[in-house]
Every structure is written in structure tokens, then in C-alpha cells.
Amino acid sequence: MTMWQFFADYPWFTLFIVIAAGSLFGMVRFGPVRLGAAGVLFAGLLLGALDPDIGPAVPAGLSVLGLALYVYTVGLEAGPAFFRELRPQLAVMTGAVVALVLTALAVGFLGSTVFGIDGPYLAGGYAGIGTTTPGLAAAQASSPDPAQPATGYAIGYPLAVVLTILFVAGIAAVRNWPSRRDPGSGLPAELITRTVDVTRPVRWADVPGAADGRLLASADRPAGGAPRVARALDALAPGDQVVLVGGPEAVAAGVEALGTLAPAHLLDRRDVVDYRRVLLTNPDLAGRTVAELGLGDRYGAKATRVRRGDQDLLAHDDLLLQLDDRVRVVMPRERTAEVTAFLGDTEARVSEVSAVSMGLGLAAGFLVGIPKLTVGSTVLSLGTAAGPLVMAMVLGRLRRTGPLVWVLPTRANLTLRQIGLLLFLACVGLTSGYAFRREAFSLFGLKLLAVLLVGALLSYALMVLVARLLGQSRPRTMGLLAGYVGNPAITAYANSRVSDGRVNTGYATLFALAIIVKIICIQLIVGL
Q1: Is-contact 218 304, C-beta < 8 A?
Q2: Could you tell me which of 126, 125, 146 has the C-alpha nearest to residue 64?
Q3: Rounded distance, CA 230 to CA 354, Å?
């Protein structure tokens, strides 16, 4: 018995001490890089490497549960963005798929033919340079020894984060970057509100941004009249005042078209028209559009913004709402209590999860993952990694089916996602630590590192080339690369270098698609 036998005898203590220590390690900055949740994987590898009995003691099936929670919650959030961007960004998506497949072929050929490395190590390394946790699970499920893919993943993951950030920094430094085919400027990085004194007669529909939903009017005051909710603006005349809501560029264009900025904000006095953020917790409203709320007809009110997570969205009529949104509503002061009660505004319900819809969704996801396709000696399936992900993307797009609300409140989604990811990474690290110790720090490990370095450089360069050839803007290319690799730390770094909504929309375009393609490629590589 070794001094480390304690960790094997008490696996639940071991599991959670790894989660705690790994999370602390993930907070440490290495320049612009933080490992985040991946710190748990490395803490698990370190502890699992101390004794061969620690890994086998990890509770069976816990990693599958963690992975299922993670991919399901990711799919619910990523699904709507994927289907929304499918048509306008089809060329970019196709290019990304080609780049991922070419990278898989390069890693597989170079690793197996030149260096004689077995497929499971290469598959795990391919998952690592793609920072895809579900890909690691797919590689382990397809391998005779789950420790082999984990070794490759642990070598490839930090390499991917460092190299991708260097690529993003290089893109940010290029000033002359043509973007002839970029589909719009994306969501504004921020929303602002300004009161305008109208100095010339103009129809609201003719104001730039009003017709396409980039600019909203929340309240107005006719010349000599009282403030009111701007429910149906038509003609504006000199002496009127109107409150504009939108991105800085859209608001500036609106001010120029209407007149001049007013010296005082129209809604500073809230005795007639009031406004506030109301938490959407009424399950009957989840999956409805802003227009379907009927706030104008019901209460003479108007939604102007929606706060979702850390992002402010303009509340245009077609915006789909979800539980835990904070809806900013402008309303007659006397109707405030009615509007609040209608939307819900109950903090206790923010973290509630429908066990019925979540249970049915996960069950359907596991069912979708069962069918197998045999290609030569390789067996392909969505499995427990991609099955729940694909099903969740579809359900996230549907949002609701009759009384069943598929989407989760944002805070509940993020909490379940974090728990699932931490459980999976801790289990993988502990069960693979001893094999990682034996193989990673050797000549074999250096060979695998060399293969993954070549694969990573090729992969990221191909994605940037695709974006350039298709005329994507510099901010969108940064977001596309972050989504292609699939790491939120890279997205955060890109957002720190440029303030543009196209970073986040680019990330959403490729994130879920890249995971699915990587899982398929990984199973093919294992067959080597």
C-alpha cells in the first residue's frame, strides 16, 4: 500500500478535491491565457499519476453523466444561432468542415505513417487541438484503452489555446483587412439611449435603421404634449421629442436624421411614463417573440431591450424570448404592476428546471446516439457525446412544443453546464493520470507533440484562409476561429482586442457544427 492509497479508498473526496484544486489552477493567468475548467483535467492527471489504483476507483458512469449535461446545455444554447446562420453562412460552414477534415487527414497520416503513433493517441490529440471535450469522450468510447486519447488530449489542449491566441493577436494587428462579403456588422457591442429634439418634419419609417429593426423609439412627446410610450410612431414634427434606443452608430444616424440631442433625457421624469427591467419567469411566454407578448395591446407598453446573460439585445418584434431574460419595458406608470405580474419577475423561478422536458430531451439524445454505421473497420455513431448535442440543438431551435418548454433559464443552463464539464474532466484526468505519466514525458510524447503542432498550425491557418477568401471581416474572422477551435477563453481574448458584435456571432456560427464534425473525424482517426 502506498501513501497515496487514501485517494483510491475515498474516491468521492478525491473527485471533489480535484475539482476544487483544478478550478483554482484554472484561474491562474499565463499572460493572456487562463485554462479555466481545463485546469481540472490537469489537476486530475497530476493526482491520478501518483498511484495506479486511483483511476479505477473513480465511480463508474459519472463521466458519462457529466458529459451529457454539458453537451445538452451547450446544444440548447447553440441551436438557435446555428440554424439562424445556416443559410447566410453556409459557405463559411462548408469551408470550416473541409478544413477540419483536411486537418484530421494530416494528423492521421503524419502520426501513423511517419511516426507510427496509434490512432487513439492521435484522436485524443486531434480533440485537444480542437479543445473539444465531447470529442475526447468520443475518442475514449471508440478506443480499447481510454487513457490513450486522454494523453493526446492533455498534450494538444494547452498547445491549442496558446497558438489560437497568437493567431487572433496576429489577425487583430492587420489593419488592411478587406471584408467585401461580410454579412452586416452583427449585433452592436452595446446599446445606448438618447433623447432627440426633432427639428424637421420626417416620417419615422424613413429614419435610418427604423425599418430594419436596428433602431427603436421607446417614448415620445408631441410638441406641447405629455410623454407617452412610442407604440406606433408615424410623422414627427419640429418641437417633438423622441427617445431612441440602439447601437451607437444607429443612434447617431437617427439623431442626424431627426434633429439634435436634447439637453435632458425625456424619461428622467417617470411620473407619467415609467420603465424598468422585468425578469421573464412566466413559462407560458418562453419561446414567444416580443411581438407575441402583446404588451402594446394589453398594457399600452413596449419592450425595448432584452438582457440575456452578459449581452444586451434590441427587442425587435421577431426576437425570441427565453426564461431568465431581463426585459426592459417602457409603460404607463399606472400599469407597472400589471406588466410585472404578466412577465413573472419571480427570482425563485430563475433556477428552476423542468424535469419533464429535460428528461425527455436527454432520453431522445441518447436514443439518437445509438445507431451505428460501419465504414471498413471503423464504427461511426453519434454516441453519448454527439447524440444529446444534436438533439439539444434541434430542441433549442424549437424552444417549445405545446406545453413543453425545452430551453432552460440562462443561469440554470450555465450552472448545469459547468457542473457537467467539471465532473467529466475530473473523471478523465483521474482515470488517465497514470498512463499520462508513463507516456507523455518521453520520446513518444515529443513525437506526438510534433504531430499536433503541425496539425494545429495547418488547421488554424486553413480556417483563417477560408475566412479571407470568403471576404469575412477581421472581427468576424476572429470569432469564426474561436468557434472553430471551440474555446470560450479565445472568444474572450478576441473581444478584448476588438469591440464588435461580429466576434460573438462568428463564434456561434461554427461552435456546434465544429464539435459534430470533430467527433466524426475522431472516430475515423481511431480506426487507424
Answers
A1: yes
A2: 146
A3: 37
Q: How far apart are CA 224 and CA 240, in angstroms?
A: 8
Rounded distance, CA 390 to CA 381, Å?
12
Q: Which three cell numbers stand for residue 147?
A: 487513457
Q: Which of 465, 457, 460, 450 is nearest to 481 (CA)?
A: 460
- Tell me the HSE value of 337 on the side-chain side, using a 13 A CA sphere: 1
Give the integer Cα–Cα distance in Å for 188 and 271. 31
How far is Cα 244 from Cα 252, in angstroms, rounded to an integer?
10
CA dist., res. 387 & res. 369, Å (int): 4
Residue 203, strand partner residues = 235
Q: Distance between CA 512 and CA 77 in Å, rounded?
A: 10
Contacting residues for 526 by C-beta, under 8 A, at least 6 apart = 119, 120, 123, 139, 142, 143, 149, 378
| Contact indicator for 36, 165 with CB cutoff of 8 Å | no
Alpha-helix residue ranges (DSSP H) falling in 353-442: 355-368, 383-398, 410-439
Place of cell 446562420: 85
Residue pair 111/499 in contact by the 8 Å Cβ criterion: no
Distance CA 419, CA 63 (A): 11
Helix (H, G, I), strand (E, B) or coil at 215: strand
Mention every residue, 6+ apart, whose C-beta is less than 8 A from residue 385: 67, 71, 134, 135, 137, 138, 141, 369, 519
Closest CA to 93 of 103, 106, 83: 83
CA distance 375 to 526: 12
Length of the chain measured in residues:
528
- Rounded Cα–Cα distance for residues 180 and 430 (Å): 49
Instruction: List per-residue pLDDT tens for the chain, 528 residues long.
Output: 567 888 988 999 999 999 999 999 888 877 666 777 778 888 988 898 888 888 888 887 888 888 889 888 888 877 887 787 778 788 999 999 999 999 999 999 999 998 889 989 999 999 989 888 788 888 888 888 888 888 888 888 878 877 888 898 888 887 777 777 665 555 666 788 999 999 999 999 899 988 878 899 999 999 888 899 998 888 899 999 999 999 888 899 999 999 999 998 988 888 889 999 998 888 778 778 888 899 999 999 999 999 887 778 888 888 878 777 889 999 999 999 999 999 988 876 666 677 889 999 999 999 988 888 776 666 677 777 778 888 988 998 888 888 888 888 777 888 888 898 899 888 888 888 887 787 777 888 889 999 999 999 999 999 999 999 988 888 889 889 988 988 776 776 787 777 666 777 788 788 888 888 998 899 888 876
In the block, which residue shows the cell 429634439? Answer: 197
Write the single-letter amino acid at 181: R
Residue 326's φ and ψ, nearest 5 degrees, are -105, 110
The span from the CA of 278 to the CA of 304, in Å, is 12
Sign of the CA dihedral running 234, 240, 244, 249:
positive
Alpha carbon distance 68, 526 (integer Å)? 22
